[in-house]
């Protein structure tokens, strides 16, 4: 795990005067290129690591910074423990246990109570209430494939229920909006694709390894695109579904409308996902305008009702 490796590298740099990239790469069983990326991440976190070239060169923490062994503040340690503890609810493995133990080893006795208090102030539990039981074992399989550069094969259910067999070079596990995804190079499509784990079946790690290709992380920020596509529709809801509607908009979008009802300016995109959201509110929600969306809702409700006529 990268967090584990970063913390370990920091500890090594604190204990040693200087260490080379190849030595670190051999120690963690990764490429020197990965070590250079890790050093960049450590520098971005505010710990100044400099690189010395030539014979006897390598990486070292700047001496004036290294004099103070208290690298992490109370807030730093609290944040690290909070993040690692949240991962433990969904990502398993000895590396996470070791990372937690190493971070806790930085805690001075006189600050332990303050740090424990801060860590317990926020609880992040990424495990689902209910859902697909295969997600957790799939995460472990993908983690192993990522570490060993091994191909993955699985059956994938795409839009409209279409199933295809895929063989993929794995590059990144992604947790986005409570859903897990695999970013990988699909040999069927000859391109990078983002695969949702809940749509996978029969996930297998293959014996065949692959040589990693140049890779860019997927752009997961769709806020600007969604804002362009989104429009506001007017719906009337019963107060009994107000808590659920608030998952998609804010209190400012509500205005009272008689006894126990509200008019809501609701963010909407004309696609299957958003029509399904409106239908999920059942008879506690009525689309008032625009007219064409109201008529489309009427058609969909009629189609559902026709399933039960016989």
Would you give an account of this structure?
GO terms for molecular function: DNA binding; DNA-binding transcription factor activity. Keywords: DNA-binding, Transcription, Transcription regulation. This is Putative DNA-binding transcriptional regulator YafY. A hairpin with a 4-residue loop joins strand 9 (254-256) and strand 10. The strands form three sheets. Strands 6-5-4-3-7 form a five-stranded antiparallel β-sheet, covered by helices on one side. Strands 9-10-8-11 form a four-stranded antiparallel β-sheet. The longest helix has 16 residues, at 291-306. The protein has 310 residues and is an alpha+beta fold. 15% of the residues are buried. The protein contains twelve helices and eleven strands. It starts with a helix and ends with a helix. It has three domains: 2-120, Winged helix-like DNA-binding domain superfamily/Winged helix DNA-binding domain (Arc Repressor Mutant, subunit A, Orthogonal Bundle); 135-209, SH3 type barrels (Roll), CATH 2.30.30; 224-306, no CATH class.
């Amino acid at each position: 795990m990268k967090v584990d490796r970063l913390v370990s590298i920091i500890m090594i740099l604190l204990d040693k005067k200087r260490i080379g990239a190849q030595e670190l790469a051999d120690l963690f069983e990764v490429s020197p290129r990965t070590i250079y990326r890790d050093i960049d991440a450590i520098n971005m976190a505010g710990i100044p690591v400099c690189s010395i070239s030539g014979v006897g060169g390598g990486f070292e923490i700047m001496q004036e910074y290294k004099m103070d062994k208290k690298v992490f503040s109370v807030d730093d340690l609290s944040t690290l423990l909070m993040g690692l503890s949240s991962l433990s609810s969904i990502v398993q493995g000895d590396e996470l246990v070791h990372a937690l133990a190493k971070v806790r080893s930085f805690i001075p006795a006189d600050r332990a109570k303050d740090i424990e208090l801060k860590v317990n102030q926020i609880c992040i539990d990424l495990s689902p209430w209910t859902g697909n039981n295969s997600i957790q074992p799939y995460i472990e399989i993908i983690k192993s494939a990522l570490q060993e550069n091994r191909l993955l094969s699985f059956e994938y259910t795409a839009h409209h229920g279409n199933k295809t067999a895929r063989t993929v070079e794995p590059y990144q596990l992604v947790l986005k909006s409570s859903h897990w995804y695999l970013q990988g190079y699909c040999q069927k499509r000859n391109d990078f694709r983002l695969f949702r784990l809940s749509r996978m079946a029969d996930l297998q790690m293959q014996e065949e390894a692959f040589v990693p290709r140049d890779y860019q992380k997927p752009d997961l920020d769709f806020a600007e695109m969604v804002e362009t596509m989104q429009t506001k529709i007017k719906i009337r809801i019963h107060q009994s579904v107000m808590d659920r509607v608030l998952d998609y908009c804010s209190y400012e979008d509500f205005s009272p409308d008689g006894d126990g009802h509200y008019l809501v300016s609701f963010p909407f995109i004309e696609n299957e996902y958003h029509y399904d959201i409106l239908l999920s509110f059942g008879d506690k929600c009525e689309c008032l305008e625009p007219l064409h969306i109201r008529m489309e809702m009427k058609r969909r409700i009629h189609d559902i009702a026709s399933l039960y006529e016989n």
